[in-house]
Amino acid sequence: EAGVAQSPRYKIIEKRQSVAFWCNPISGHATLYWYQQILGQGPKLLIQFQNNGVVDDSQLPKDRFSAERLKGVDSTLKIQPAKLEDSAVYLCASSFDRTINYGYTFGSGTRLTVV
Amino acid sequence: QKEVEQNSGPLSVPEGAIASLNCTYSDRGSQSFFWYRQYSGKSPELIMSIYSNGDKEDGRFTAQLNKASQYVSLLIRDSQPSDSATYLCAVNNFNKFYFGSGTKLNVKP
């Protein structure tokens, strides 16, 4: 079974620029998550999709972050404009359904550096 | 108060010893509990899950859950240098995952 695919692996941008990250979940997984992990901290949920609908985006900074999941498969997370404090690893994960009693698998992540 | 609390460490143990990692959580309604291992520069990988009070063993790993004390622990027996990583505790509360900040484990040869 192929895992969660993410790209790019690394991105360096200047503050106030925009950036986009892409995620392809495990085939058949209806639920997709975007997490932000700042160095030295645990992952923090940004947004959760169930198919192509948003379930939880309470911690997404909506003034600069946006995410979409077209057709309930791939997802894109965008930051516009980026700030220095957005430097982090952005992790995507997926699960078969919302009952995450079995945990879920993360992709390899995108490391963003804002300078 | 954070949802999930962990000692950041580092916890240093000699090779072959038992490493004990601890985690407390704030919401008594939490239903399931997980331990993830994260090597430097890598994404977290799930190593253990536990849902009921008591112990759950998987190879060298034992997860312990005490819901009355709101406490989860992970024991690693016969620790190896390859176990050196950050261990993240995660708690599922009504289908929302909350992660602790992780405990860094160093296993010295």
Biggest interface and residues each: A-B, 22 and 23 residues
Mean pLDDT of chain A: 92
- Quaternary form: heterodimer
Structural class of chain B: mainly beta
User: Largest sheet of chain B, described in full?
Assistant: 6 strands, mixed
Spatial shape of chain A:
globular
Please report the distance between the alpha carbons of the first and last residues of chain A. Answer: 37 Å
Q: Would you identify the regions of chain A where 5 or more consecutive residues have pLDDT less than 50?
A: none
Rounded average pLDDT of chain B: 94
Spatial separation of the terminal alpha carbons of chain B: 37 Å
Number of helices of chain B: 0
Topology:
The complex is a heterodimer of chains A (115) and B (109).
Chain A: E1 5-7, E2 10-13, E3 19-24, E4 31-37, E5 44-50, E6 53-56, E7 65-68, E8 75-79, E9 88-95, E10 105-106, E11 110-114
Parallel strand pairs in A: 2-11
Antiparallel strand pairs in A: 1-3, 3-8, 4-5, 4-9, 5-6, 7-8, 9-10, 9-11
Chain B: E1 4-5, E2 11-14, E3 19-25, E4 32-38, E5 45-50, E6 54-58, E7 61-66, E8 71-76, E9 85-93, E10 96-99, E11 103-108
Parallel strand pairs in B: 2-11
Antiparallel strand pairs in B: 1-3, 3-8, 4-5, 4-9, 6-7, 7-8, 9-10, 9-11
What does this 3D model show about the protein?
The complex is a heterodimer of chains A (115) and B (109). By secondary structure, chain A is an all-beta fold. Chain A has no helices and 11 strands. In chain A, a hairpin with a 6-residue loop joins strand 7 and strand 8. Chain A is globular. In chain A, 37% of the residues are buried. The mean pLDDT of chain A is 92. By secondary structure, chain B is mainly beta. Helix content of chain B is 0%, strand content 57%. In chain B, strands 2, 4, 5, 9, 10 and 11 form a 6-stranded mixed beta sheet that branches. Chain B has a 5-stranded antiparallel beta sheet with strand order 1-3-8-7-6, with no helix packed on it. The radius of gyration of chain B is 13 Å and the shape is globular. The interface between A and B is medium-sized, with 22 and 23 residues.
